[in-house]
Design goal:
The protein is α+β, with helices and mostly antiparallel strands. It contains 13 helices and 11 strands. Strand 1 and strand 2 form a beta hairpin. Helix 4 packs across helix 6, helix 7 packs across helix 8 and helix 8 packs across helix 11. It is elongated, with a radius of gyration of 32 Å. Involved in protein export. Acts as a chaperone by maintaining the newly synthesized protein in an open conformation. Functions as a peptidyl-prolyl cis-trans isomerase. Keywords: Cell cycle, Cell division, Chaperone, Cytoplasm, Isomerase, Rotamase. This is Trigger factor.
């Protein structure tokens, strides 16, 4: 094999590689010898098919397989010899002339091709050991636990039909038809909907206008969709709903005690409270982790500036951009609705893609230099968690990950990232700051994007 570098520009590399026809023919002969004892052809006893006959029948298909193996082997070997790491899988520019390709497959001509790739940049890690983090911490109060208990009691309440007018907390069974300018709109009808007055689950004004309604009563509700409503065609629009009340039900009185707690498989009210407190603490802990990680990544990003592989950035940008455009399409919104233009949005999201690639490389380098690894057991646990998300399709999901190394790597990557983050946080100077639950759970637009 002869390798000649034809381009070395920044992170881009291009190599001209020539594999002698003699090497290809030697590999083909060895492959045909293997096939000799495997194939069964009419008129020949097993293992007695002449190699020359096999070459006529299977020569080109076997050589095509050999060429693919040679490309992969040479890429791996060449990168090792050059001491380089490719950012993405190298691409190969093979002979396009049909006659040339035919001669290569026939083992009569050298295989000459170009291999192009981008190398991972070499850079010095910044001093991440001096990072300072302000960790926001919120405590779960007894009042919050009591509020959650009452919410659980309300949501799990049993309802029974009642005579008379609907009051706060009552559940109505209704049919409704929504209209814009007197015309029904798509998705604005339901023949058997439940509405609990005071739950706040319908658009503003809907539940309130049903207060005092009785079974069999018809009402026309006048409402205005919120400006930020998901469906663009409805956002900010005034609408009417023709409603027929089918039934009014009142919640049964709930006594929050040990017996009630047993409905949820818990032995006592105190245990239920403890469980709820743990759940609330877990929510707050996740929010704290998110904000701490954001601070850490921001500081790591500030400490590093180096050339990024263009293909990696472009691929990450396309992933982000596809998600953005799909979200806009689903919500029926446009870039104008977001007070921006497509060009400006692309520039913003390209910066996000660059940040992601840069931080990914930094975290990878920190992990490699400090021998941080993800165990097979950790990946297996992640796979089990993923499989549980698809009840009834467990085998298909398992087979998909087993047969797709890239998919399995997608489970490994976030585990690796969190372990590196934990490592760096272990070296950082962290100061706790007590904040309210509202401040901790609040996300600004910039933080949500990151």
């Amino acid at each position: 094999m002869q390798v000649t570098e034809t381009l070395s520009e920044g992170l881009k590399r291009e190599l001209q590689i020539v594999v002698p026809a003699t090497e290809l023919d030697s590999r083909l002969s060895a492959r045909l010898e293997e096939m000799k004892g495997q194939v069964q052809l009419k008129g020949f006893r097993p293992g007695k098919v002449p190699v020359a006959h096999l070459r006529r029948i299977y020569g080109k298909s076997a050589m095509a397989e050999i060429v693919q193996n040679v490309l992969n082997e040479n890429a791996r070997k060449t990168l090792e010899e050059r001491g380089e790491r490719a950012a993405m899988q190298p691409s190969f520019d093979l002979p396009e002339d049909e006659s040339d390709a035919g001669e290569v497959l026939a083992g009569k001509k050298d295989l000459a091709y170009k291999m192009t790739y981008e190398v991972l940049p070499k850079f010095e890690l910044g001093d991440f050991k001096g990072i300072k983090i302000e960790r926001p911490v919120a405590e779960v109060s007894d009042e919050e636990v009591e509020t959650e208990l009452k919410r659980l009691a309300r949501d799990s309440a049993e309802y029974a039909p009642k005579d008379g007018a609907a009051a706060d907390g009552d559940r109505l069974t209704i049919s409704y038809l929504g209209k814009l300018d007197g015309e029904p709109f798509e998705g604005g009808a339901d023949d058997n909907a439940f509405v609990t007055i005071g739950s706040g689950r319908f658009i503003p004004g809907f539940e309130e206008q049903l207060a005092g309604a009785k079974a069999g009563e018809e009402r026309v509700l006048n409402v205005t969709f919120p400006e930020e409503y998901g469906a663009k065609q409805l956002a900010g629009k005034a609408a009417t709903f023709d409603v027929v009340v089918k039934e009014v039900s009142a919640p049964a009185e709930t006594t929050i005690d040990d017996e009630w707690a047993k409905k949820f498989g818990i032995e006592s009210l105190d245990e239920l409270k403890a469980t709820m407190r743990q759940q609330l603490e877990s929510q707050l802990g996740s929010a704290t982790r998110t904000k701490v990680k954001r601070q850490l990544l921001d500081q790591l990003d500030e400490k590093h500036a180096f050339e990024l592989p263009p293909t990696m950035v472009e691929q990450e940008f396309q992933n982000v951009w596809n998600q953005v455009t799909q979200d806009l399409q689903r919500s029926g919104r446009s870039f104008a609705d977001e007070d921006t233009t497509e060009e400006a949005a692309k520039a913003d999201y390209r910066k996000i893609a660059e940040r992601r690639v840069r931080l990914g490389l930094v975290l990878s380098e920190i992990g490699e230099q400090n021998s941080i690894q993800v165990t097979d057991e950790e990946v297996q646990r992640a796979l089990v968690d993923r499989i549980r998300q698809f009840p009834g399709q467990e085998k298909q999901v398992y087979d998909f990950y087993r047969e797709n190394p890239d998919a399995l790597a997608s489970l490994r990557a976030p585990i690796f990232e969190e372990k590196v983050v934990d490592y760096v946080l272990g070296l950082a100077e962290i100061t706790d700051k007590t904040v309210s639950r509202e401040d901790l759970m609040k996300d600004d637009e910039e933080e949500a994007k990151a």
